[in-house]
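Fold sample X.
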Amino acid sequence: MDEKKINVIITDDHKLFRKGIIALLEDFDFIGETSEASNGAELLELLAKMKTLPDVILLDLRMPVMDGVEAHKKISKLYPEIKVIILTMEDDEQYILHLISEGVNGYLLKNADPDEMEKAIIKVVENGYYFSENISTLVVKGMVKKDTMEALPNLDLNERELQILELICKEFTAAEIAESLNLSARTVEGYRQKLIDKMGVKNIAGLVIFAVKHNLFPL
């Protein structure tokens, strides 16, 4: 991590859980401002008032007034630059795949260790996505079980695009990809956006799921 602090909002309808997460976050030296909201509507009101938007939102799914699914839809339209990590007990693989297809950047179970939450926040900021090993396994198993592995459509991906996609799937940052392939970071960002456009996904997480679904690289 560089020295820039990461600002985070935790949104959950259980006050004790929110306070516990905030206390945990404040132990991480890379965390800047922390804020909280009890539901999606309150979160949107908070965002509208903030002079400096958060870098990451930890978002529960099951909440009164406005749940996490609806809140994420609005956030992705109004504040596409904010990274969203779903923080929940829901571990159904098809539900997870749906949320990823809708553009969430990460998915973390509430029983995760503190070290994993630290890793998740850093990864979504640096790489654009994070999914725990357990979640990744669930997703892959769900694809295989339901025969959702698909043949690669004719997207006319060139060798460089495939190289960059593979490195994205290996959790390389844009800077690391640039160094590995002797490119500028700006050029890598351009390739990543071209891949997103070609594959019709919403973000880097979508690229990774696309690669898994179409069996582009060894799992």
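Fold sample Y, listed below.
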Amino acid sequence: MPEQRVTRVIAIVTAALVVLVTGVAWSKVRSFEDGIYHVFAPSLGHGGDDGALDILLVGMDSRADAHGNPLSPQELATLRAGDEVASNTDTIILVRIPDNGKSATAISIPRDTYVAAPGLGKTKINGVYGQTKEEKRVSLVESGMAPDEAEREGTEAGREALIKTVADLTGVTVDHYAEIGLLGFSLITDALGGVKVCLKEPVFEPLSGADFPAGPQKLNGPQALSFVRQRHELPRGDLDRVVRQQVVMSSLAHQVISGKTLSSPATINRLQSAIQRSVVLSSGWDIMDFVNQLQKLAAGKIAFATIPVLDESGWSDDGMHSVVRVDPHQVQDWVGGLLQGQAKGKTEELAYSPGKTSASVLNDTDINGLAASVSEVLTSKGFSTGKVGNNDAAHVSRSQVQAANADDVGAKAIAKELGGLPVIASTSVPQGTVRVVLGNDYTGPGSGLGDGGSRATLARSSNSGSDKSDAPPPSPILTAGSDHPECVN
């Protein structure tokens, strides 16, 4: 059966941004909102002391629209969705819109994240909604409640359980809730005229329908579904799939913010129709206040990130299910630090990802294979590979990282990965690249020292020295705001 899990887009954010970039009257925003299906979620907060809004965006693996109407056979075929009934929430994103005019943040939670959920114990987070809903529905039907009413109350219980689970995991109180079904992503992508993406390598994966060349390209709605649906044959599996989701959302957000695709009434009408058919929104959400906050947001400054994981290929406690293992305390600390940094406007640092930097590694010692070993370490962390070999330039007295300027974000990241090497400014190093020169003093990752190894061992094999952490490298942090999306796996 084709892969069922697909991503969703920030639909209500898109609707509000239409006002900012096109000058559409408030009555038009109200017409957007009036046609959206609203739900009650009692556990939602009302904004923190700083006035920031924390919004939980959920993508439902559903074969119906937001109003409960089943998709047509033609729609199911176009989306390669099949007819399976499902209530999984396979896209879970926490968005913070600040009140201080700084950058917004969108934090992805992988669907297989193993969490403690109210009433369920430890389980995958994408099943919290559906499991809770079904248990509640069955219990109510058995107690004599009408099936339709039991379905509604079960659905409300599922939403509540997911909201509480995300709050417990991240330490962030959710203020608003937005939900979109299977069809919505395709409709909204088409309404905006498609989405720009870029692939490092060509892909062909029949289960998802992904069949794309390498390089930059523009996808329509169904193609975009296949792009974000692919999970097999990716280097990091579901984590790379999450990065694809973020790339698509970043590209769509940039299109809306830039206003390039919203210059015609026809586009706006298509977007309104897509949103009204696809979006479920929590009640009590003052959209005008939301629009006012977005007006303070510098265009394009939306950072997309993924929570840190311990093991992307872990197992549940009973050994029966493959899961993504996380440390809740680490997640809360990371989320807190990310949001604080975003509130201070540290856009460049937060937007940085290792793939943006090409790292050359040069060996200035007589140790065979040292440069190749250290280069493997950097590649495993996501940095692009540059020249690897011996140092033919001036001899260095100590190991160092050279860059066009000493404040280069990529150089600092590489220096940190290699044990705190100094960053030296060099006019001979082009922008966007870093040159690592290894001297006889180097004892960091890939040296064979500090991990029970030895340089003698390294010298015997140039392929033996990659020090890969047990935990996978963190997913890159992306930002909306470019006509040239970053290339991904």
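Sample Y note: Residues 1-12, 17-25, 451-457, 459-469 have pLDDT under 50 and may be disordered.
Also: The first strand starts at residue 37 and ends at 39.
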